[in-house]
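Moderator note: this is an archived Q&A kept for reference. The question asked for a predicted structure of one protein chain; the sequence and the answer are reproduced below.
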Amino acid sequence: MTWTQLLKTEMAGVYSTTALLLDRVDPNCLDWKPATGSNWMTMGQLLKHIGDACGAGCRAFLTGDWGLPPGVSVEDLKPEEMLPPAEKLPAVASVEEAKKALAGDRTTALEAIDLAGEAQLEHKLVAAPWAPGVECALGRHFLQMVQHLDRHKTQLFYYLKLQGQPVSTVDLWGEPQV
């Protein structure tokens, strides 16, 4: 199996299952977050993050453009600027906004795979801004972005479960992708 095949297969499952979970979100619960613990995103913040959790990262790894303002480099950022606390994160205004963002992120991810091509996915070594001395294959970074979305999809699943929504293992894993 090639990187392209692996990534597209994994993305198909994660994006479709995440989209189905978004259909279960109560639009009146965007301010909801778990009652215990700290540094939890609200539902709206989680949905905003899900909307660019994979494709945006794939594009950034491919191009090296992490969307920083002109003249600012990753090295200039303080740790809390790279990973701000939950209360500083943006939120979606609606579930529909989250659905559109997820669809756009999927398009961005698939375009990044096609633009990279199999040779770059396998052979181009890239370091993440948060681990500058650790290079690995571009395909591995793309796979980690798919996993990033998948983990936040799981977070969404548990948010729904904590809200009393009738979700089950099938909702978490979705239908098998062939």
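Archived answer notes: The mean pLDDT is 93.
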